[in-house]
Amino acid sequence: MFRVKAAIGGLLVILAAAVSQAADVKLLYDSLDVFVGVPFAVAIDVVTTDDTTTERPVFPQIENAVVSDGSENTSQNRSIQIINGRRSETITITTRYLYSVIAKEPGKLRIPPIIVNVGGKDYETRPVTFRVTRSETGDLMFVDMDSTKESAYVGEPVDLTLKIGLKGFVQNRQKLDANDMWGCIDKESSSWGPFADLVQQPQQNVTVQRARKKGEDGEVNDYFVYAIKKRVWPAKAGEVAGGDIRIVAKYPLRVERGFWGSQVTRAKPISAAVKNSPVVVKSIPVQGRPPSFRGAVGKHTINATASPVKVRVGDPITLTIAVNGSGRMDLIQSPSLADLPEFTKNFRVAEDQLPGVVEGDVKRFTQSIRALNDRVTEIPPIPFTYFDPANERFVTVYSGAIDIEVEAAERMSASQIVESVDPGNRKAESLTQLDRGIESNYLEPRELLVQQGFHLTVVSATSAAAAPLVYLICLFIRAKRNRSETDVAYARRKTARKIALKKVSDVVKDGPEATAAELANALLGYIADRLNLPTGGLIRKEAIESLRQAGVEQDSLDMVDRILLDCEAVQFGGLQAGSAQEIAARVKSGIEKLEGQRF
Question: pTM score > 0.85 for this model?
């Protein structure tokens, strides 16, 4: 009998362990009735009783539907039961994976079983079939986008206005005002395109006005028209992304008045999209583009100030360059003074690219220059080139010349340096000699004859042997640290790869605007650090020629040259050369290929 009970108990333990390790996987949804073009949420819940690793399920491809991944969250629930005085505790962990599905056509939409891997074991959800119908928007809503220009160049500012019209709701004597109708728009399910950041702000700058418009049935309807304005700078040629805008709303069908005012008790989803793009974006011409052009589009001016204006040869002069314009001032690059013979002839100029500070429509660059001789009388004008979209030509403007006074530096001879020490300040010191020498330290002469013995122990021997080794290690570490601090070229080569890869990763996180230019700068910066070249102002041809002279293989040169060419095409020409992630991957490959070579 005892053996039977023991066997049953062991079986129960095994079953309990199996149950504790099992997972419960479910596919959740709000309704089986969905609408064409209106996103609906689908969730996969994974419930386990222990901290088991769960991989995000891969949603299968569904015909006539678009699926996108959503958020992921985990919750924990603890339950305690006491039966017959015995306390048991159960912890369940629920991980929810959200997905958004948009049906393209009416009919039936089937989601097949989805495989979920939990703790190395595969589970399947049950298949679900949805009924897809058209939600006729009709005259209930319209979406348009207007622009102040019909065509623009890459980098030229364009003012866009998104207009959303909602037909006013009237039921018997109840009406919804402009605020109530705006609240019917499903902001989370809608795709806002370039206006997304404005809608997500706490204080939304949305204006509303009443308008009358003839509908499809020929009747004139009253609409609330909501307008959102934004200035954009197109980064590539083609059409401004208007097709990415689709607005979803829950249009009220029944409204009941309660204690807290009117409440929508029944609604249906409707959606509308921008049909046509109001702006065509053109590429900046390549022919006639001067070397000093750095991507500025639209009218710009340049001014320069210097302080101090009265110096000696070699003294630093702080030069402040201010560029004023109406474009993306954060993308404006500083003029390269190191490329101007008028500066390099009479001034020592740093070759690093200046970051600059943006203040409204002005970007200021600060640089230190030093006069090389006392014959310099002025700081020459500084050129700045921009593309004029109105006249479709490149224009170069100059800052005014700055008058300065440079004096020769004073020199002191070696005799003057020696004589500058005042001999009158020297103090004579006298020494007193003891007649008895070391005997004066001892009272008994016999103490001088006592033999002082030396006994070598294990500790003293080990310490004596380890001391030189420790000294050599410290000497090596110190020498390496001194080299990193004093040998700039060695320090730049050592950290070139790490700095460049971090720049690439940061660029991809920032978004697509100016990605090509920043990725190109990361690659050029890596080349400059490896070859100990000035980072600022380094262009593609100089970089390739420097790598060739350093002995880099031809296939690596071709690879780097192609990457930089494509980045320039995207930056200045607006040509489509791949997504930010693709360009970043190519830049990383170029850096790793160069890293594997010794030069």
Answer: no
